[in-house]
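If you are new to this repository, start here. Below is one unmodified record pulled from the training split, so you can see the exact layout before writing a loader.
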Amino acid sequence: MIYGMKNHGIRLKPLSKESSEMLFYGRIFGSKDIFPMQFSEVSKKILKKCGGIPLAIITASGLLANKSENIKEWFKVCDSIGSGLGSNHVMDSMRKILLLSYYDLPFHLKTCLLYLSIFPEDYAISKTQLIWRWVAEGFVQQAGDQSLFEIGKSYFNELLNRSLIQPAYMDRDGTPRACRVHDAVLDLVISLSIKEQFITILGDGKHSLESKYQVRWLSLLHNNNTAWPSMKMPKLRSLTIFKPTGVVIDPMTPSISCYHLLRVLDLQGCNVEDLASLGFVGSLTHLRYLGLPSSSTNAKLPVEMGKLRFLQTLDLSKAGVKEMPSSVITGLGGQLMCLRGQNGLGTDLSSDLLENLTSLELLESATVTSKCTAEKLGRMTQLRVLSVIIRLSTPDDEEWSACTNALVESLGKLTRIESLQIHHHRFYPIDLEGSMAEPLENLCRLVCIDLATLLPGWIQPASLPILSYLEIDVRDERREDIKVLGTLSCLRHLVFRVRLAPELQVLERCVVGPDAFPCLVSCEFHVRGGGVVPGIFPRGAMPRLQNFKFSVKPEHFWSGGGSTVDVLVLGHLPSLRSVTVTLGFLHNREDDTIKSVREKLEHEAAAHPNHPLRILFTS
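And here is the target side for that same chain:
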């Protein structure tokens, strides 16, 4: 049942028997055609009890995927579900399946799942923030040489594989940046959390704070009338405020400063005029995670924050902080593992401050302001995720060149780096040239936005042996650049943008070799200020390409002013599923030009066995 406006329900039809079987067997064995026949009888019983409800089927299959070779376990699960007869019994069966999935979890995953009850209904939970919160709460236990974040990521993936959380906001490479919790799962974990006094929720209109509770994790949800609780909470470990609660921070200051056991404090849903008024956080010496709100007047951090010796995560993404005081960084020092700066603006970190951040694993939206700062980045050898903005006060080309060369040299020292994103604040592009002492053997994701005149020389197989995602802007494109990219043997996702100079209108056509891009699954090719059909694909190139996007002006399909239309050889791409072509409107051509181009594209798609094509028009 789905409820919409004015609580009118829309009853959805359950899945058919065939669809239920495809979903069930596909998630456990990969296909309905290869499941062992000895599981047939018990499978039919389980599916009958699921009643065609997708969530019940998905959750049951997620539970049984770990027991795919033990038929006795399947019968135990089947017997535990219930009869499944009638609509109410089906819902009871689904709840029992969810409970079975919960009780089947190892202890650490139970705790991580219950923790999700602090988030509002249908809330998109950032994967990165969630994992760092788990780390701060002590839910993630060290094992071997893996970092705490990597272990936490395995927890996240396990909950995802068991269908207890759902992916949200996917990256181009299909990796979820966030997750959501299905309403039925959320209802279950909230009830379990409250029963175990794990979470206390205020502001959702359903729960109230009782004096008999020992409040440890407090969540203030969406309600403009939410009042700050007056009762004492000496054992409070976690406080999260979600927008729009309307909670004003100043009257709460005396209360929060008394919570000496707080490990997680997320104030990003608060109203605050001056960040300096948050000096009370300096007394919360056990804090591991701190998320600060935006301010209307003063975005300077309180110096008292330097007392937080055990802080692991500092989230300034909403705070508008452009500069980190030296007293704060010096005080935080060696425990800080995650520092998120202001999105899109960057947060200045002087070279002296970087000396104290050698434990950082994630550094987002940091500003490189000098050659010295770029050099000091090379000492942060624990970094796995780095996002920097190059911003120099001088327009001097030599200064910029020295800074970028130092940056590239420093990057070569970050042997643990897995994700790298580089932007710059300048009206014209800069070359990101330089040499690396060591290849970036762990780098999987690289994004260079509006940066390079040409493809940097260090983007090549020897330096980036396992690169799987590349997004890059260049101002000029050479045939040899495309050939180099084609030799990146692990590259699965490519976004290539060319911003043509005004004097250039059409690029030289790219022709790739027969063994180019062996693992590429998705490709985007965009030209701004001009256009070209990306290239001719010989047999053997891009054998795994499924999704292809490019943008082009219709007149650039034409040659010599005549009516010959260049033809993309899409038939040589056997795995192709989707082609999206964005056509700009013509200025000097009649509508029959667009019609002719469209017919040619549709002809190419019709000739392909998979018939992939989607045409968009833009102004």
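Two things worth knowing about this chain: Residues 1-12, 559-567 have pLDDT under 50 and may be disordered. The longest strand covers residues 445-452.
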